[in-house]
Amino acid sequence: MKLKLLHVLVVLGYCMPTWGQNPIPNPGFETWMGNQPEEWFTSNLPDGAGDNVLPVSPGHYSDHALKGTVIPLPGSPEFPFVPLLESNTNDFGFPVNERFPYVSLYYKFQPASPEDALNIFVGILDDEGTVFGGGFSEITASSDTFSLLNIPLTYGPGVPYRAFLTITIVNNGPSGLPAMGSSFTLDNLEMGNGLSTATELKDPTVQITAISPNPADSTVQIAFDLKQSSTVSLRLYNSAGQQVSDIFTGHLESGSHLQSANIEDLPNGMYVCRLFTTTGSIASKINVQKN
Hints:
mainly beta; 2 domains; 7-stranded antiparallel beta sheet; 1 helix
C-alpha cells in the first residue's frame, strides 16, 4: 500500500551535515520512455488508454519539464482523471543517507477552480520503512511562469535510508473533485542545501516585526507577519553560521504570529534569527547577554 500524504511531522534532532550529490532520480525529467518519465510512477494508464502526465518543452533550465493535467476519466468523462506523480525506483522511493534540509523545485500551477491546490509531500524513511521525517507544501495561487519552491524538511529520531515524493492536485471544496483543466508543471527537483538558495531570496511576503527582549538572557519572543499562508521554519544561527536552535517548523496561515525561543543554554554573543518560507527568507539579529 502506498503511503498517503501526511500533514504532521515531528520536529526533532535536526543536524547540519555536509550535503552530497542530489539523490532525486531524473530530477529534470529529461529522460522519458514514451510518455513515462524514467524513475517515476505516474497516473498514466497502460497502452496509452489515458495520459494525464506528459513531457513539455521548454523546461525551466533545459529541454523538458513534466506537466500533469486533470482530464476526463477515460470511460467516465463526467469524472476527473487526476494526475499523480511519485518517485519510484526498483524499490519504493530512492536511496538517501543524509539529513537534507530542503527539497527545492520549480513549478507552474494553473488551477481551473479556486478550490484546487497542488500538493507536494516528501517522506523520509528509515531502513525499516518507517516515515520519521519529511515536508509538505500546498500551493493554491496560480503561477503561469516557473516559480521556485523550497520545502523545509524536518526529522525525528532515525537514520535516513530512503525518500519519496508524492505530487498531485486536490480539491478543498465540498465536492472534493479537482476541476477539469487544472494543471501543474515541474522541473529541476533537488534535495540538498536549499538553505543557501533560500538565503539569497529575500521574501517580501514575511516580516519579522519585533524581537523582545533584545538583548535577552533566557527567553526571547519573536513576532512576525505573513502576507500569505506558508510552510515556515524559524531557526537560530551563531556567528559561525551554525544552526543552534530549530525554534519552529510548520504550516501557518496569513497574519501575525508569535514564537518563543529558549536561549538560556546559549553563550553570550550575537545570533541570527532566520525565518524561512517556501519562497525565501528574512533575518534579524538577537543579542544574547547574561548577567
